Amino acid sequence: MSGPRVELRDVTPEDRDRLRDWRNQPDVAQWMYTDAVIGPEDHARWFAAALADPSRRYWIIELDGEPVGLANLADISPANRRCAWAYYLASPAVRGKGVGAYVEYWMIEQVFGALGFAKLWCEVLVENEAVWKLHESFGFRREALLRQHVWKNGAPRDVVGLGLLAQDWAAVREASRERLQAKGYALD
Q1: Do β-strands 6-10 and 155-165 pair in parallel, antiparallel, or remain unpaired?
Q2: What's the pLDDT at 1?
Q3: Structural domain count of the chain
Q4: Is residue 188 part of a domain?
Q5: Is the sign of the CA dihedral 31, 119, 9, 38 positive or negative?
Q6: What per-residue confidence (pLDDT) applies to 96?
Q7: Which H or E element spans position 170?
Q8: In this predicted structure, what is the pLDDT of residue 142?
Q9: pLDDT at 84 over 70
Q10: How far apart are the C-alpha atoms of 65 and 6, rounded to whole Å?
């Protein structure tokens, strides 16, 4: 069985405008911490800083060769053997096809395999239940409820903080792998 071909590639300068367009889409922005439409100058400053910052790393998610989203690591701390992560799928047409699950698996493997870290952390708006439940299905545990942590559309929003330890991942890795393979994803 052959499934979709998902790949993650490094963000390049040619991706700058695409990322701004994606981030300003209402169905992407609704899950971000900020509401403001991002202008070209602000985005150019952010983009330059993001690519130069060794504590962050960004990848474009591609589905069958087409860019469809962004994944990143942030607060990369080799001394503490941990980092945070996030992703979004900009194309509504690819949601619900297991692309997010594939990206989750790939990112976790990077953190605990290639980087050799001990912990991966993420934050999700509490109403984004589909995403925090996806994280939990990969072994993440709720470690925090950050009450009124961000303001969206003039109202406070709570945020769920989730953590995954290397030993937690070891306990669910094979089952997670089998789930993705059953959907036709090649993982090697």
Answers
A1: unpaired
A2: 44
A3: 1
A4: no
A5: positive
A6: 82
A7: helix 166-182
A8: 97
A9: yes
A10: 8
Average pLDDT over the chain, rounded to whole?
A: 94
Q: Look at residue 1 and tell me if it is in a domain.
A: no
53, part of any domain: yes
Domain CATH code at residue 139: 3.40.630.30
Please check whether residue 24 lies inside any domain of the structure.
yes
pLDDT of 68 > 80? The answer is: yes
pLDDT of residue 127: 95
Report d(CA 102, CA 29) in Å as an integer.
Answer: 22
pLDDT exceeds 80 at position 7:
yes
Rounded CA-CA distance 177/71 in Å is 19
Which pLDDT score, from 0 to 100, does residue 48 have?
Answer: 96
Structure tokens at 80: 């503490």
Give the pTM. 0.93
Give DSSP secondary structure letters for the chain. Answer: -----EEEEE--GGGHHHHHHHHTSHHHHTTSS--SPPPHHHHHHHHHHHHH-TT-EEEEEEETTEEEEEEEEEEEETTTTEEEEEEEE--GGGTTTTHHHHHHHHHHHIIIIIS--SEEEEEEETT-HHHHHHHHHTT-EEEEEEEEEEEETTEEEEEEEEEEEHHHHHHHHHHHHHHHHHTT----
Tokens linked to 172:
């669910």
